[in-house]
UniProtKB/TrEMBL annotation:
Protein name as annotated: Phosphate ABC transporter substrate-binding protein
Pfam families reported for this sequence: PBP_like_2 (PF12849)
Swiss-Prot/TrEMBL keywords: Signal
Residues in the signal sequence: 1-26
Organism, as annotated: Trinickia symbiotica
Length: 436
C-alpha cells in the first residue's frame, strides 16, 4: 500500500445471490464501496482473488481507520478522496467506534434513523509489531522460520521509547539479561502515524495500561516512573504530547511508516501490523516482502515470557472470549460496542494485540447498479469468516475466535438467533428505515 497521498483503490469481487449473479452476467458487475484501515488493506487485496469478477466488484480505499469511520458514519465518500462518489457500504477500522459515535449515529438526526442500525464486527485478530532499523544485536526468541534472535523489549522499554524518555539504545535495558543494549551512543528516531490510525489506537491502548509518570509501590517494592507522559487510548498518537519530541518523525499510513523507517540512516523504532514487516510473519504479503523489516519480541510481564508477534501469539493474548448475548457474556448484543474483544494488557501471549473491525449497515437500498446490496454484503462476510483463514494467516493475522464466528452467523448473516439483527431483516428495514 502507498500513503494516503496516493489513495489506492482495491477491487474486491463479491459473490452475490443467484438473482444478482444472473443480472451481473447481463450488465456491468454491481459494486460496493468501502475503505479505511491500511492495516487490513493488503488482506482485502488478497481476498479479491478468491471472488470471480463476473459476480461483481467492490472498491476499497486505504485511507486509515479514522477516515474510514468518518466516511461510513456520514455516508460521505469524499473521505476516501475528493473525487470519490457513491454510497459508502462498509468501513474497516482497527479502532473501535466510541459509544458517542454510535449514539450520534443512532439518535434523532443521525443517519441510522433512515439507514438502519450499524453493525460493528471483529474482522481479524492482529498483533501490532515494533519494527526496528539499525538496532543492536538481539538475544530474544527468533521469529518462526528464522534463526536470528530478536531484540527483546519490555513495557518499561516501550514506555520509555514511545514517550521520549529513552532516546538512545544505550538507555534501553535488555529484559533477557538486564544489560543495556549498547555501550556507545545510538540515538533512536521514533516513527509514528500522523493520520488518525487504528494501529495507533491499539498501541496506545497497551501503553495506557503499562506506562506511568510517577513512582509507585507494588508488592512492597518501589517501581520507578517509566514514561514522560500519561498515555490514553487514541487514534492520534501525536496528540498524546503537548509537544512531540524532536527525535520523533511522523508518517502517513502503514506504508508511510515503513518507508520512513527504511529511509533512516540511523536507528529507528516504529509500530506496524505484520503485513508491512517481513515474510517470517506475513509470507503472502507484498509489502512484507518488499520491506523486510526486523521486529522486536515483547516481554509479557505476567507470564514472564518474551513473545514474538505471530498471529498465534496474538490469538493467545485475546484468550477465551465470548460474544455478547451468551451465557459467558451477558452484555447486550444489540449494542455494537460490545462486539470488540479487549486484550490491551493480556496475561499471556503477545502484549500488543487486538482486533480490527468491519462496520456495515443492517439496511441497504439498491444502488451502484447492485439490485442485491444486502445479499452482497452477507456473502462477502460469509466467505471472509468461513473460507479465508489461509489468506489471513498469509498476511500475519488470525481469524476471530470461533465463538464470535458462530454468533456473527446466527445474529447478523442470518436470524437463527431470533434477535432480528440480521442484515436486510424486513421487520427492521421497512417504512422510513429505507437503508443506505
Amino acid at each position: 500500500m502507498k500513503s494516503s497521498k496516493r489513495k489506492i483503490c482495491q477491487a474486491i469481487t463479491l459473490v452475490i445471490s443467484a438473482l444478482g449473479a444472473s443480472v451481473a452476467m447481463a450488465q456491468t458487475p454491481p459494486s460496493l464501496l468501502g475503505g479505511g484501515s491500511s492495516l487490513v488493506a493488503p488482506t482485502i487485496g488478497s481476498e479479491i482473488s478468491v471472488f470471480p469478477a463476473a459476480d461483481g466488484t467492490a472498491t476499497y480505499y486505504s485511507v486509515g481507520s479514522g477516515a474510514g469511520q468518518s466516511a461510513f458514519l456520514n455516508n460521505q465518500p469524499s473521505f476516501f478522496g475528493s473525487t470519490v462518489t457513491g454510497t459508502v457500504d462498509f468501513a474497516n477500522s482497527d479502532a473501535p467506534l466510541s459509544t458517542s459515535q454510535i449514539s450520534a449515529y443512532t439518535s434523532t438526526g443521525g443517519l441510522g434513523v433512515t439507514n438502519g442500525p450499524l453493525i460493528q464486527l471483529p474482522y481479524i485478530v492482529t498483533p501490532i509489531t515494533i519494527p526496528l532499523v539499525n538496532a543492536p544485536t538481539g538475544t530474544g526468541p527468533a521469529l518462526p522460520g528464522s534463526t536470528t534472535p530478536t531484540v527483546a523489549l519490555n513495557d518499561d522499554d516501550l514506555c520509555g521509547i514511545f514517550s521520549g524518555k529513552l532516546t538512545d539504545w544505550n538507555q534501553v535495558t535488555n529484559p533477557v539479561n538486564g544489560s543495556l543494549y549498547s555501550t556507545t551512543s545510538k540515538p533512536i528516531t521514533v516513527v509514528y502515524r500522523a493520520d488518525k490510525s487504528g494501529t495507533s489506537d491499539l498501541l496506545t491502548a497497551h501503553l495506557a495500561q503499562v506506562c506511568h509518570t510517577t513512582p509507585f509501590v507494588r508488592n512492597g517494592v518501589t517501581v520507578s516512573a517509566n514514561s514522560n507522559i500519561t498515555f490514553t487510548e487514541s487514534q492520534n498518537f501525536g496528540g498524546e504530547f503537548t509537544t512531540v519530541p524532536s527525535t520523533f518523525k511522523s508518517a502517513t499510513g502503514s506504508s508511510g511508516v515503513a518507508a520512513s523507517l527504511l529511509a533512516l540512516s540511523g536507528a529507528g523504532v516504529g509500530y506496524l501490523s505484520p503485513d508491512y514487516t517481513n515474510t517470517f510473519l506475513a509470507p503472502s504479503s507484498a509489502p512484507a516482502k518488499a520491506n523486510n523489516l526486523s521486529v522486536a519480541s515483547l516481554h509479557n510481564d505476567f507470564s514472564g515470557a518474551n513473545v514474538t508477534p505471530t498471529y498465534a501469539n496474538a490469538t493467545a493474548a485475546i484468550g477465551t472470549v465470548y460474544p455478547p448475548g451468551t451465557t459467558q457474556n451477558q452484555n447486550d448484543p444489540t449494542d455494537p460496542s460490545q462486539w470488540v474483544p479487549n486484550a490491551s494488557n493480556p496475561t499471556v501471549g503477545y502484549p500488543i494485540s487486538g482486533t480490527s473491525q468491519i462496520i456495515v449497515s443492517q439496511c441497504y437500498q439498491n444502488h451502484n447498479n447492485n439490485p442485491t446490496v444486502a445479499n452482497s454484503v452477507i456473502d462477502f462476510l460469509n466467505l471472509h469468516y468461513t473460507s479465508n483463514a489461509s489468506i489471513l494467516h498469509g498476511n500475519g493475522f488470525d481469524s476471530v475466535p470461533s465463538s464470535f464466528i458462530t454468533a456473527i452467523q446466527a445474529d447478523f448473516l442470518g436470524n437463527s438467533s431470533g434477535l432480528g439483527l440480521d442484515i436486510g431483516d424486513t421487520s427492521v428495514c421497512t417504512g422510513t428505515t429505507v437503508g443506505r
